[in-house]
Amino acid sequence: MQSANMFLKKTVRSCVLPFAAQYGMKKDLFPLSRTLSLSLCLKQDNSCKPSEKLDLDAWKKVMKSGLHEEVREMVSEPQEPSSLAAAREILEMWRLAGRLVPENISEEQLKTFMECPSKSAKRKYLKYLHLKELHKKSDKRKMDEKRERRLEAQEQASKMDETKKSSFICMWSNSMDKAYNWRAAQSMIFGQPLVFDMSYEKEMSVREVTNTVRQIVLGEGSNRRSVDPFHIHFCNFKDNSLYHKEFIKHYREAWGKLLITVTDQCYTEIFPKNKLIYLTADSPKVMKSFDHDKIYIIGSMVDKSIKTGVSLARAKRLGLETAALPLEKYLLWSTGAKNLTLDQMMHILLTLKDTADWKKALEFVPKRKYCGFVNRPVQELKKSLDLINTLKLGKRREEVQKQFAKNYSKKYKLK
Amino acid sequence: VQPPEKPLQPEEWNKLREDFQSPEIFEEVMFNSMIRCNSPIDVAKSLLSHLAKRNGDISYSVLVKYLTLCVQQGQVSEICDVYDIMKVRFKILESGAYNLLIKGLSNSDQWRMALTLLKEVKKIMIPSRTCYESCIKAASRHQDMKLAFELYNEMLAKDVVPTLDVLQSFFDFSRGMKDAQLQKELFAILLYLRDNQIYPHKTFMWSIKLWFESIPGGNWRGHLTNIKDSGQCPVCNHQLEDSNLTEEEYSNLSERIIRDVIHGTDTFRKTSPQEFEAFQTFVENRLPFDIVIDGLNVSHIKPKKMQCENLYDAINCLAKENVRLLVLGRKHMLINSSNWKREIMKEMQNKADFFFAENISEDDAFLLYATLRSGKHCKFVTRDFLRDHKACLSDSLTRHLFRKWQRGHQISKKKCFSSVFSQQPAFRYDCVVQTTGDTWHIPYKDVFEEKYSYRVPRKWLCIQQKL
User: Fold this and answer.
1) Cβ-Cβ contacts under 8 Å, B53 against chain A
2) Which of A63, A129, B435, B448 sits at a 20 to 30 Å CA gap from A216?
C-alpha cells in the first residue's frame, strides 16, 4: 500500500502536474481534471512552495480590523419588543447564510412567523414571503419599464400632433363597465342563480381563505364579462368573517356596489330543495348535461391538504342532490386532483350554459392535468390506457387493471 | 469547477474568476466544490485572503462554507479562529453555523467549548438534534456519563427526538462500568424504545448485548433467537407478553375509534347518523361475532374470479369452525350483476350475517366498530393496512395502541394464487422491548432502515441474568 502511494505520488508529480500547469485548469481538460481530483489527498505536502509567498491568514486580520464600525451600527436599530427583535436578528442571519428569507418583513409577518408551530412551517412561510417579495420587485420593475416606454411613445405622438377624427369619444373602458353592469343587473332579475357556499371558513387556514376569495373574485369578473351572466349568490355569508375582510381587501368600495346577492341565509332557505345541485368532486353522480332550471352550488373552499368528502358531507346532511363534472368521461386524466379552482368552475359553467358543449367547457381544466380528450366509450379507452401503460411502464396486465379499477371504481362498483 | 490543488496568488484567482461563466457566484461555487472534493484548507485560505483584500470583507455564507471544510477535516484551531471572527462580527449566529461549530469542537479536545456553545444556542433557539448528538457523544466519549444523560434528558424534555445513533453510543461508552445509577438510566433508554415501539437495528442490538454482558458481577448472558409462534422464547422458555390490550387500553381505543375515525369532524363524511345508528342496533342485536369480514376487500382477492365467488370461498373457509361471521358490504352487492350473483349472495347470507352500507359510505369504519364491540377475541379480515384510519387518530399513543391491536386481530391473506383461502395468523405475542427484571427480550431489525410500519421484526435478543 505504502509503495503504491509513493508510486502514485511520483507519477502525479512527474507527469500530470507540469502538464496541468502548462494548460491551466480549464474545463476543456475535463478527463484530465478527474485524475487530478482523485490525487488531491496526496497533495498536501507539495503545496508549500507558493504558500510561503502568500499570507494565508491575511483574511483574519482584515476581518478582525473592520469590526468596530459594525458594532456601532447594531446599536442604532429601531426599538422593538425584545422577542421580535431577536427573531428579526435570526432572520437576518438566515438571509446572510443564503436561505430563502425576505429582505423586509413587517412586524405582523414577524409575529405570524413566530407563531408557526414547527421549523418546517417557519421555513415554508419565509419562502412564501421571499417569493412574494421577488414577484413584487419584478412587477415594479416591469411597471417602470412600461411607463418609460409609454412616455417615450407619447413624446413621439405629440411630435406627430394630428388628431384623428372619430365618431366615438375614447371612453371604452368606462362604457364597457356600464354595459357589463347593465347585463349583470339584468341577470339579477332574470338570470339563473349560481350559489357560492361560504360556510367553509373553519376548515381552512388563513392563506386558504385568501386564495378562495381571490379565485371567487376572478370568477365574478369573468361572470360579469360574459354574454349571459349568472345571478351570483353568496350564501351562509357572515359579516366580519375572514371571507368578508378578504373581499373588502380586493373590492374596496366597490364591494357595496357589486351586482350579486350576499346573504347569511342558507341556500336551502332561499331556493326549493329539489332544484339545488351541490357540485363536488367526491360525488358518486356524474353530471350529464347542464340544466338551466337547476341551481348549482359551489363550495367556496380551497383545500391544499385535500380533505375528501367535506362538501359531500354538507350536501348529505342537507339531503341535496350532488354532481361531479364528467372529467373522466371526456378527458384522459393524467395527474392532479380532480377538484378545480373556483374560477375554472365558473368558466366551465358559463361555457356550458352558453353552448352545452362539454369539450369546449372542459378546455378550462388546466392542461397539465390531462393528456387529451376522448370521445370513445370507456371500454375502448381502457384498452388504449392499458396499452399506453404496458408500453410506458412495462407493468403487468393485472396491475394495470387494478390501477384502472381504482381510477374508475365508482362506475364499476355502483352499477 | 475543479478547485485548484495549491493555494493561488490573487492574480490567479482573478483569472479563474474571469474565466467562469457567472463571476458573481464564483466564490460560492468554488467553495462548494472544495467541500465536495475535500480540498486542503490552505487553498480555501488563499481564496479567503484574496476575497478579504478585494472586498475588505467576507460574507457570512462564505465563512460558513469555510467552516464546513474545516469541520470536515477536523481543523480545530481554524474552527476556533472562525468562531472568534464570527463572534465579533455578528451579534448572533444561525443554526447552521452553530451546528458546524459544535460538531467540529465536540470531536476535539476542546469539547468543553462545544458545551458552552450549546448553552449559547439555548438562549436564542431550541438546539437541533445534531447539536445535542455531538455534545452527548463528546461527553460520553470522555466518560462523563452523568453529563451525557443530563443532556439527553434535557433533549427529551424539549421534544427533540434522539437518533438511534445517540442511544447506541450510550451503550457503547458505558461498557464495563459498574454504577447503579448509570444502569438505571440505560434501562430507561430500553423502556423508551418500548414506549415508542422503536426496534433497534442489528449493530445497536450488539451494543446492547455487549453492554449487558460487560456489567461487572451482573452475570447477564445474551442470545440471538427466533420466538416461536406460541410466543415462547426457545432460549429461556419465558412466555412473552401477549398481544392483548388491557381493559383500560381496549376501552380507550374503542372510544377513540368511534370518536376520531367514525365521527371525526363530521359524521356525514364517512357515513350518516341514521346509518350509523342502524348499524349500531344491528350489531348490538347480534353480538358477539368471532370474525368480521370486509366483504368488498376480500372479493377482490383474485381478479380473474367473479367477485362474489371470492367472497364465497373466504366465507366457506372461515365458517367451517363454527364461528359467528359478520360480512360488511355495500348495497350495490345486492343488485344482480355479472360480479354479484343473487343465488350465491343468498347462500352466503345463510352462513353469515351481512350488513350492507350505503354505496358512498366507508365500510372500514364499520369494520373497526363491529370488531371492537364484539370483544377481545374477535378478529377481522381485510388486506387493507388501514393506514388512513390510523392517521385519523389524533395522538401517537393511541396510534401505537391501534397498531398493536391490529397486529393481534387482523387476519390478512398471504399473497397467493392457489385455490385455497389461506390465512396469516394474527400475532399472539406483543412485539416490543420487554422485561421481567431478570430477563430482557428485545426485537431487532436486520436492516437499518424501517420500510414498513406494519411489519414487525421476527428476530429477538434474549438476555437473562444467571444468579
Assistant:
1) 58, 62
2) A129
